[in-house]
Design a protein that fits this description.
alpha+beta; Glucose Permease (Domain IIA); seven-stranded antiparallel beta sheet; 12 strands; M23ase_b-sheet_dom; membrane; Dup_hybrid_motif; transmembrane helix; M23ase beta-sheet core domain-containing protein
Length: about 230
């Protein structure tokens, strides 16, 4: 009888111990699951979605190609939207007034007397090339930017350096021309530099300056699309 009673106690305590171990295991498993996600379910990094440039910040795609080498370093005088007058211009002498409807890219010190190639910033046909007062040689390309038709104006080019014929497709990164000689008819008496203006829509608009912020909305701020 005593042996039977002892056996029952042993079985009883064994069951109790097994139950306690099972409960402990389940508790630890739940705690582990709540503190650590499986490797295939990772929370996004807080830095992974941080904007890397202004174009990304605006939900816009950068242009496929910069128009000149070291392009960002060249924007030193007239960015987009700068209000210009002969009294406050960073360029002297100044003959224009208004809000700058493009971006000016200056030449580097070593480029005054050498040919400086200008590259197409987007893909599309050449729709205009002429000598224009205030610009000298001008090339205009029709492109699609941010799913909208635009015209890209390249000003102060050497006219006979624009090799493509009208309606010829030009790929982004292809040479569209070369900068004209400073203070000559090739630049309409202006310094040697590139004026790049991008106008919304397919209509050709040659203006480099406008007189109101409302008018300026017709142009794209090129700097927001640069890489």
């Amino acid at each position: 009888m005593l042996k039977r009673y002892s056996l029952i106690l042993i079985i009883f305590f064994t069951v109790i111990i097994l139950l306690l171990l099972t409960v402990s295991f389940i508790y630890q498993t739940k705690q582990g699951a709540s503190n650590e996600l499986p490797s295939f379910i990772k929370q996004p990094s807080l830095t992974a979605n941080k904007p890397t440039n202004s174009a990304d910040n605006l939900g816009q795609e950068p242009l496929l190609q910069l128009p000149l080498s070291q392009a960002l370093e060249r924007i030193t005088k007239k960015p987009f939207g700068l209000k210009i007058s002969p009294q406050n211009s960073p360029v002297a002498p100044e003959k224009f007034s208004g809000l700058h409807a493009g971006v000016d890219f200056e030449i580097l010190p070593s480029e005054e007397d050498v040919a400086v190639p200008v590259l197409a910033v987007c893909a599309g046909p050449l729709v205009y090339k002429q000598l224009v007062s205030g610009y000298g040689g001008v090339a205009i390309q029709r492109c699609v930017l941010d799913k909208q038709t635009v015209t890209a104006l390249y000003g102060h080019l050497k006219l006979d350096g624009i090799a493509a014929k009208l309606n010829t497709e030009i790929s982004a990164g292809d040479q569209i021309g070369i900068l004209g000689k400073g203070y000559s008819s090739e630049t309409s008496g202006e310094r040697k530099h590139l004026h790049l203006g991008i106008h919304r829509g397919a209509t050709i608009n040659l203006r480099g300056y406008v007189q109101s912020t409302k008018e300026l909305e017709e142009w794209v701020d090129v700097m927001k699309y640069l890489k």
